[in-house]
From TrEMBL:
<dbReference type="InterPro" id="IPR006691">
    <property type="entry name" value="GyrA/parC_rep"/>
</dbReference>
<dbReference type="InterPro" id="IPR002205">
    <property type="entry name" value="Topo_IIA_dom_A"/>
</dbReference>
<dbReference type="Pfam" id="PF03989">
    <property type="entry name" value="DNA_gyraseA_C"/>
</dbReference>
<dbReference type="InterPro" id="IPR013760">
    <property type="entry name" value="Topo_IIA-like_dom_sf"/>
</dbReference>
<keyword id="KW-0799">Topoisomerase</keyword>
<dbReference type="GO" id="GO:0009330">
    <property type="term" value="C:DNA topoisomerase type II (double strand cut, ATP-hydrolyzing) complex"/>
</dbReference>
<comment type="similarity">
    <text>Belongs to the type II topoisomerase GyrA/ParC subunit family.</text>
</comment>
<keyword id="KW-0238">DNA-binding</keyword>
<feature type="coiled-coil region">
    <location>
        <begin position="424"/>
        <end position="472"/>
    </location>
</feature>
<dbReference type="InterPro" id="IPR035516">
    <property type="entry name" value="Gyrase/topoIV_suA_C"/>
</dbReference>
<dbReference type="GO" id="GO:0006265">
    <property type="term" value="P:DNA topological change"/>
</dbReference>
<dbReference type="InterPro" id="IPR013758">
    <property type="entry name" value="Topo_IIA_A/C_ab"/>
</dbReference>
<dbReference type="GO" id="GO:0005524">
    <property type="term" value="F:ATP binding"/>
</dbReference>
<keyword id="KW-0175">Coiled coil</keyword>
<dbReference type="InterPro" id="IPR050220">
    <property type="entry name" value="Type_II_DNA_Topoisomerases"/>
</dbReference>
<feature type="active site" description="O-(5'-phospho-DNA)-tyrosine intermediate">
    <location>
        <position position="117"/>
    </location>
</feature>
<dbReference type="GO" id="GO:0003918">
    <property type="term" value="F:DNA topoisomerase type II (double strand cut, ATP-hydrolyzing) activity"/>
</dbReference>
Amino acid sequence: MEITTVPIEEEVKQSYIDYAMSVIVGRAIPDARDGLKPVQRRILYAMYQMNLTPDKPFVKSARIVGTVLGYYHPHGDQAVYDALVRMAQDFNMRYPLIKGQGNFGSIDGDPPAAMRYSEAKLSKVAIKLLEDIEEDTVDFVPNFDGSTLEPSVLPSKFPNMLCNGSTGIAVGLATSIPPHNLREVCKALIELAKNPDLSTEEIMKHIKGPDFPTGGIIENYSELIEYYHTGKGHVRIRAKAHIEKLQGGRQQIVITEIPYQVNKAELIKRMAELVREGKLKEISDIRDESDKEGIRIVVELKRDADGQKVLEKLYRYTALRKNFPINFVVLIDNEPKQVGIKGLLQEFLRHRLEVILRRSKHYLRKAEDRLHIVEGLLTAIRHMDQVIQDIRSSQDTAQAKEKLIQKYSLSEKQAYAVLDMRLQRLTSLESKKLEEEREELMQKIDYYKKLIGSEEERIKVFVQEMEEISREFPSPRKSFVLGFEEEKVGQLTVVIYSNGKIMPLEELQEEEVVNVLDVPFDEGLFMVSNKGRVYWIAGSQALQGSKVSFKEEEESIVGAFVRSQASDRIILITKLGYVKKIPIVDFEYKAQGMSIIKFSEEEDQVIRVLQSPEEGDLLLFTQKGKWLRFPIKEIPPATVGSKGVIGIRLEEGDILKGARALKDYPYLVLITEKGSVRKVSLDDIPVKSRGSKGMRLLIHTKSKLVDVVPIKESAEVMVATEKGKVFYDKLEESQIPFKEVPRWDVGEDLITRIVIKKA
């Protein structure tokens, strides 16, 4: 045996480099293509092999960990379980790859249950990472002992690297990639696929910035373009908080979202320490009211404390404001590299185009093999009588095969397929099916050859895939990018839903819409519930996306308005025919959930909230088709605690359906639940006295009436259906007849609400 002498410093240097690369490639740095570290990839692939798909039952985590250790990852079981747990935590992963059942830890830092107690299976998003893995789309390599194969990378139809982000510390290297919004990433990928010369600035028109699973407000948008260009910098994020006024002039700070990877329990503990140290003397109490609906930390202040100043102190002294590092270090061709956001997108695009190419070649081989067999079967069927005679006269299978090959010019595969053919394939119907299959296979072969020969065609497939995945996983943005919205518009159009959610219009969801409003950043948005309670949030909160915390069960929002855009009074309309005019000053910016009406009967509730003009009429219409029009000045101003006055006297069993304030409108447009419209002259509806019984006018429709829209020349409306469809339309008075005509095709759906955007 030859002995080689090596200086010890060189041996140590080389050994350390080998060790460092082992840690970098094998443990700490994710692959740019699928965004996974080896342990994560092995867990997901093992679960896929175990058939733990979303539609299957959960299995014990210990069983999964055992499979991963035994076949793919010969390291500690706790390390594997920790990685599995993290992929199931919705406060760590923007799009969790594992669905967990049991205790998987909490945002308070509570540890997960032992692996023998918890259960898991793959999430729907994880299936998109593994889709087509059996279609020769990626390379497989031997596992640690050579007993089986494992994928070197996943096909990753889902852009996991940017959407879920990654953090890791290696030897001399670290990576820190924040999570992003799926829809924004898909849009950026589509634009980059169409235009490879896209700049970072153009990419950032689609990707506003990180989108953390815990929400929060991103403050340094103006710096992000530079950081995303170089791949190094930081995101400054602060908690989402607002100030509420309490009775007696006191205030409280309510925190509803905290920065990413901040321990909530430690955050509250730090606040308490600051109070004891005398740095936050203004605080009288701190309560954690968080539940399954979300985070709610209440900081009560002393009587004379200024809520805004205390909040600024909290941002300064606690983790309510923090920097999350940006360090886009990833493995590209198995080497660690620092790239910008464009580089990350390009690597994913390159990977997916390679997957589409390999998948197309695989499908082409399968289609050509099948076409070869089908043509052999059709040849045999055309000469079936002779084929049967040749087979019957043969001594064994080998002789029969040789006769078929020589006499009918069949290949060995075709000959075996003919010999295996069942007698039912001899029917004319089966023969026709084979002819149709041949035509279909020839079309597929042409298509796959087209894909293989043209990158442009593969890009079209990629674009289609990104559009599909964006639709399949609708994901409203959770983190609000402060500078982006202010730079663009200074205000944003938001949608208010009956369940209390407020979301930007671009993130429209299939839920019952109450109103659509343009909310300025520095204004207040007020909402009134069916229980007669008023809730409000700052415009900045509305633009970030928020949700009302209702005081009562079965409570829902029925009306909303922006304070600066509202008149001095609003009118509340109740189901049992009461109307109430109330000055906004009586309740604006006061306690959340403040009651502003006293109901005459327990089953009564608010159905509509209207702006009160100084002049004009109020039109009420009932479920049974009664109408009443009377002057608004007949409604006396009322105090917060009163029940209002009778607006219309209802027949037994009837309820109020809707109401509109009228002023100088010559026509009404009636809209039915099946999407029809008709015009009615206001002159046909006489003015009566408040408190009268309604009149049954000759304006009935073929289907039930949903609402009426006062109109002069035109009106812009948003029509929302029961199943969440939305139609934006401009109603032109001159184009709407006095008879009922269909306008919106809702099919089996029903229109439930009309929102007037402009009249």
